Protein backbone atom coordinates (compact mmCIF):
# COMPACT_ATOMS: atom_id res chain seq x y z
CA UNK A 1 0.00 0.00 0.00
CA UNK A 2 1.29 3.47 -0.88
CA UNK A 3 2.01 5.49 2.25
CA UNK A 4 2.78 9.12 2.92
CA UNK A 5 6.40 8.16 3.43
CA UNK A 6 6.44 6.72 -0.11
CA UNK A 7 5.48 10.13 -1.46
CA UNK A 8 8.24 11.96 0.36
CA UNK A 9 10.86 9.25 -0.24
CA UNK A 10 10.21 9.51 -3.99
CA UNK A 11 11.52 13.05 -4.26
CA UNK A 12 14.73 14.94 -3.51
CA UNK A 13 14.83 16.90 -0.21
CA UNK A 14 14.32 20.31 -1.87
CA UNK A 15 11.10 19.07 -3.53
CA UNK A 16 9.98 17.45 -0.29
CA UNK A 17 10.44 20.82 1.41
CA UNK A 18 8.18 22.48 -1.19
CA UNK A 19 5.35 20.18 -0.12
CA UNK A 20 5.97 20.34 3.60
CA UNK A 21 6.11 24.15 3.44
CA UNK A 22 2.51 24.29 2.20
CA UNK A 23 1.21 21.51 4.49
CA UNK A 24 -1.05 22.38 7.39
CA UNK A 25 -1.52 20.24 10.51
CA UNK A 26 -5.21 19.78 11.35
CA UNK A 27 -7.11 18.19 14.22
CA UNK A 28 -10.56 16.96 13.27
CA UNK A 29 -13.17 15.99 15.86
CA UNK A 30 -15.26 12.82 15.71
CA UNK A 31 -18.03 12.82 13.07
CA UNK A 32 -16.56 15.69 11.01
CA UNK A 33 -17.74 15.64 7.37
CA UNK A 34 -14.71 16.36 5.23
CA UNK A 35 -16.33 16.24 1.82
CA UNK A 36 -19.46 15.20 -0.04
CA UNK A 37 -19.80 13.20 -3.23
CA UNK A 38 -20.18 15.47 -6.28
CA UNK A 39 -18.84 18.60 -4.59
CA UNK A 40 -15.65 20.48 -5.46
CA UNK A 41 -12.44 18.66 -4.46
CA UNK A 42 -10.21 21.48 -3.23
CA UNK A 43 -7.85 19.76 -0.78
CA UNK A 44 -6.53 16.44 0.41
CA UNK A 45 -5.05 14.96 3.57
CA UNK A 46 -2.51 12.46 4.78
CA UNK A 47 -3.87 10.87 7.93
CA UNK A 48 -1.51 10.86 10.92
CA UNK A 49 -3.86 9.17 13.39
CA UNK A 50 -7.49 8.15 13.60
CA UNK A 51 -9.83 6.82 10.94
CA UNK A 52 -11.93 8.28 8.14
CA UNK A 53 -14.84 6.42 6.53
CA UNK A 54 -15.38 6.83 2.79
CA UNK A 55 -19.02 6.53 1.81
CA UNK A 56 -21.17 6.49 -1.29
CA UNK A 57 -24.66 7.92 -1.70
CA UNK A 58 -27.38 5.27 -2.00
CA UNK A 59 -30.76 6.69 -3.11
CA UNK A 60 -33.44 6.19 -0.47
CA UNK A 61 -30.98 4.91 2.14
CA UNK A 62 -28.11 6.05 4.31
CA UNK A 63 -24.75 6.42 2.58
CA UNK A 64 -22.87 3.11 2.42
CA UNK A 65 -19.35 3.00 3.87
CA UNK A 66 -17.12 1.55 1.16
CA UNK A 67 -13.72 1.87 2.84
CA UNK A 68 -12.06 3.10 6.01
CA UNK A 69 -8.69 4.84 5.89
CA UNK A 70 -6.18 5.21 8.70
CA UNK A 71 -2.66 6.21 9.67
CA UNK A 72 -0.30 7.08 6.82
CA UNK A 73 -2.99 6.92 4.14
CA UNK A 74 -3.93 9.46 1.51
CA UNK A 75 -7.45 10.84 1.90
CA UNK A 76 -8.69 12.20 -1.39
CA UNK A 77 -7.42 11.92 -4.94
CA UNK A 78 -10.28 13.53 -6.88
CA UNK A 79 -8.51 16.90 -6.49
CA UNK A 80 -5.88 15.80 -9.03
CA UNK A 81 -8.16 14.95 -11.95
CA UNK A 82 -10.60 17.27 -13.75
CA UNK A 83 -13.38 18.13 -13.15
CA UNK A 84 -12.04 18.09 -9.52
CA UNK A 85 -15.21 16.69 -7.94
CA UNK A 86 -15.32 14.17 -5.11
CA UNK A 87 -16.32 10.65 -6.16
CA UNK A 88 -17.25 9.71 -2.58
CA UNK A 89 -18.08 11.36 0.73
CA UNK A 90 -15.90 11.19 3.84
CA UNK A 91 -16.28 11.61 7.57
CA UNK A 92 -14.17 10.97 10.63
CA UNK A 93 -15.14 8.03 12.86
CA UNK A 94 -13.22 9.42 15.83
CA UNK A 95 -10.69 12.19 16.39
CA UNK A 96 -8.25 12.51 13.47
CA UNK A 97 -4.89 14.22 13.17
CA UNK A 98 -3.87 14.88 9.59
CA UNK A 99 -1.74 16.95 7.28
CA UNK A 100 -3.88 19.01 4.92
CA UNK A 101 -2.85 20.30 1.49
CA UNK A 102 -4.49 22.92 -0.71
CA UNK A 103 -5.20 21.10 -3.98
CA UNK A 104 -4.80 24.09 -6.32
CA UNK A 105 -1.41 24.95 -4.82
CA UNK A 106 -0.19 21.34 -5.16
CA UNK A 107 -1.47 21.12 -8.76
CA UNK A 108 0.42 24.35 -9.57
CA UNK A 109 3.57 22.93 -7.98
CA UNK A 110 3.17 19.73 -10.02
CA UNK A 111 2.85 21.74 -13.23
CA UNK A 112 5.84 23.97 -12.50
CA UNK A 113 8.14 21.21 -11.19
CA UNK A 114 8.12 17.99 -13.26
CA UNK A 115 10.13 16.01 -10.68
CA UNK A 116 7.72 16.87 -7.90
CA UNK A 117 4.75 16.39 -10.24
CA UNK A 118 5.89 12.94 -11.31
CA UNK A 119 6.33 11.87 -7.67
CA UNK A 120 2.87 13.15 -6.69
CA UNK A 121 1.13 11.59 -9.70
CA UNK A 122 2.90 8.28 -9.15
CA UNK A 123 1.96 8.25 -5.45
CA UNK A 124 -1.69 8.97 -6.23
CA UNK A 125 -1.73 6.38 -9.05
CA UNK A 126 -0.25 3.72 -6.75
CA UNK A 127 -2.83 4.59 -4.09
CA UNK A 128 -5.71 4.30 -6.58
CA UNK A 129 -4.36 1.02 -7.99
CA UNK A 130 -3.97 -0.43 -4.49
CA UNK A 131 -7.51 0.54 -3.51
CA UNK A 132 -8.90 -0.87 -6.75
CA UNK A 133 -7.14 -4.17 -6.06
CA UNK A 134 -8.56 -4.34 -2.53
CA UNK A 135 -12.04 -3.48 -3.84
CA UNK A 136 -11.85 -6.35 -6.34
CA UNK A 137 -10.82 -8.76 -3.59
CA UNK A 138 -13.76 -7.60 -1.42
CA UNK A 139 -16.13 -8.08 -4.37
CA UNK A 140 -14.83 -11.62 -4.91
CA UNK A 141 -15.33 -12.33 -1.22
CA UNK A 142 -18.93 -11.07 -1.42
CA UNK A 143 -20.06 -12.33 -4.81
CA UNK A 144 -17.53 -14.80 -6.17
CA UNK A 145 -17.59 -18.58 -5.82
CA UNK A 146 -16.45 -19.80 -2.42
CA UNK A 147 -12.66 -19.56 -2.16
CA UNK A 148 -12.18 -17.59 -5.40
CA UNK A 149 -10.56 -14.51 -3.84
CA UNK A 150 -7.07 -14.42 -2.35
CA UNK A 151 -6.79 -14.03 1.38
CA UNK A 152 -5.25 -10.69 2.33
Automatic annotation (TrEMBL):
Gene3D superfamilies tied to this protein: Jelly Rolls
SUPFAM superfamilies: cAMP-binding domain-like
Molecular function in Gene Ontology: DNA-binding transcription factor activity
Cross-referenced CDD domains: CAP_ED (cd00038)
Classification via Pfam families: cNMP_binding
InterPro entries: cNMP-bd_dom, cNMP-bd_dom_sf, Env_Response_Regulators, RmlC-like_jellyroll
Entry's Gene Ontology cellular component terms: cytosol
Domain Cyclic nucleotide-binding stretches: 7-76
PANTHER family linked: CRP FAMILY TRANSCRIPTIONAL REGULATORY PROTEIN (PTHR24567), HTH-TYPE TRANSCRIPTIONAL REGULATOR ARCR (PTHR24567:SF74)
Protein known as: Cyclic nucleotide-binding domain-containing protein
Amino acid sequence: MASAQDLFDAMPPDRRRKLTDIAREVSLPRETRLFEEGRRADRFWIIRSGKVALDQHVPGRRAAVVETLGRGELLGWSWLFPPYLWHLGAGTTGPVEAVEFDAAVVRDLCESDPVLGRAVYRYVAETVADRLHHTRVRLLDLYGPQGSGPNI
